[in-house]
Write a structure and sequence with these properties.
This protein is α+β, with helices and mostly antiparallel strands. Among the domains are: 154 residues, no CATH class; 70 residues, Single Sheet (N-terminal domain of TfIIb). It is 40% helix and 19% strand. Strands 1, 2, 3, 4, 5, 6, 7, 8, 9 and 10 form a 10-stranded mixed beta sheet that branches. Helix 9 links the parallel strand 5 and strand 6. The longest helix has 25 residues. It is elongated, with a radius of gyration of 24 Å.
Length: 386
């Protein structure tokens, strides 16, 4: 009779193991390693994310209670000192590559964004993660404060973080975007806030046939060169303009669209700037409003992933933990879309956490109500092989 493996075993099978091994080889992750290899490190850190473990000691103790099931997940030993050394020394780029390989799988399953237009829709934004400067001296942000910053290209098709850059807290948002070549395709629409208004950057987007939607600065010097018919509730102005400032007119010589919009929900008047002249003014306003989805994404990962308290203090250990956390986010997303799971990622993560070492099929725990998850009895443990 075939015996089921654990839920953890099934989760691990969803990761692109071949590409992961190639990354290990590329960065020599297992060079001179005798016992605790990169795959075992990943298993351990993924376990800490799923179980919300706060310390190396907590991880070690938790896994030791499940030592009879190690055969099924590929773990052979666990010592907190060994895990600490691996986090400090083993290149975090291995786990970053794993993230992007998993991302490519998720993209094949994601639903479309909510708008009628077919253009890919993105938002670019950044979020700061505070750190204690005395513990993380390499992450100096202010005189007495440490921080790192996560810069994200958020794909509204599937709510995916399609590109991530992690920097120190002092890094300028616009400088990071300009230096890291965020992967935007022609005909994409990207919403950005005022922190990214650099007319040279906006001009580069326009030349690459990428549409942008942002908030207009209050001191913007411009001349009106045309006007669109006022259509849509809340639209007060819909103008074609040209920048007038001696520098700005040189950096961005093309026409722009300026929209004044009154938001009934917030009772505020908003001013938008875009190079998209075909969409209605109200749709432009809704595109910018949708950028708050990235704020919800940042809020979710900070509340539900272990990216605010860290298992190590070195930069490599912090980066490793963040990339493994983001791999887990993509894993949850992949499972949700692949199985058409009816509930949100939070409930999915809780169900997986509670059944991680149960001998059940993954599809069984996704289709049952929480109160029925414990109906199935675990099969007897397979005898340990020596």
């Amino acid at each position: 009779m075939h015996k089921l493996g654990t839920i953890f075993t099934e989760l691990l099978k969803l990761f692109p193991r071949y590409q992961f091994e190639k990354a290990i080889e590329r960065y020599q992750g297992d060079r001179y390693v005798k016992t605790f290899n990169t795959w075992q490190q990943f298993i351990t850190l993924l376990y800490s994310q799923i179980k919300q473990k706060d310390s190396l000691r907590d991880i070690e103790a938790g896994l030791m209670t499940q030592s009879a099931r190690w055969y099924h997940i590929g773990l052979t030993s666990i010592h907190r000192s060994t895990l600490s050394d691996a986090n400090n020394k083993r290149d975090h780029m291995i786990f970053e590559e794993l993230f992007y390989h998993l991302l490519s799988r998720c993209r094949d399953l994601t639903p479309k964004h909510k708008f009628r237009f077919k253009n890919p829709l993105y938002t670019i934004d950044a979020s700061t993660i505070d750190l204690c400067l005395s513990v993380f001296p390499w992450a100096k942000f202010r005189k007495t404060k440490g921080a790192i910053k996560m810069h994200c290209l958020y794909d509204h098709r599937g709510a995916l973080p399609s590109f991530l850059v992690i920097t120190d807290g002092k890094a300028s948002d616009i400088r990071v975007v300009k230096e890291n070549n965020f992967p935007l395709l022609s005909d994409s629409i990207v919403s950005i806030d005022k922190a990214y208004i650099d007319y040279n950057y906006l001009n580069s987007l326009d030349k690459n046939r990428i549409f942008f939607v942002t908030r207009a600065k209050s001191n913007m010097d411009y001349a009106i060169v045309g006007q669109h018919p006022l259509k849509g509730k809340g639209v007060k102005k819909d103008l074609a303009i040209r920048l007038q400032g001696p520098k700005t007119s040189e950096l961005y010589p093309q026409n722009l669209r300026f929209i004044e919009f009154y938001d009934e929900e917030t009772k505020k008047t908003l001013f938008f700037l875009t190079n998209h002249f075909a969409l209605s003014a109200s749709t432009i306003a809704q595109v910018y409003k949708s950028r708050w989805q990235i704020e919800l994404f940042f809020k979710w990962i900070k509340q539900n992933l272990k990216i605010k308290s860290f298992l190590g203090t070195s930069k490599n250990a912090v980066m490793t933990q963040i990339w493994v956390a983001m791999c887990y986010y993509l894993l949850l997303t992949y499972i949700k879309y692949q199985t058409k799971y009816a509930h949100g990622l939070l409930r999915l993560s809780r169900v997986i956490r509670e059944t991680l070492f149960d001998r059940k099929a993954l599809i069984d725990i996704l289709t049952l109500k929480p109160e029925r998850l414990r109906v199935f009895q675990d099969e007897p443990l397979q005898a340990m092989l020596f």
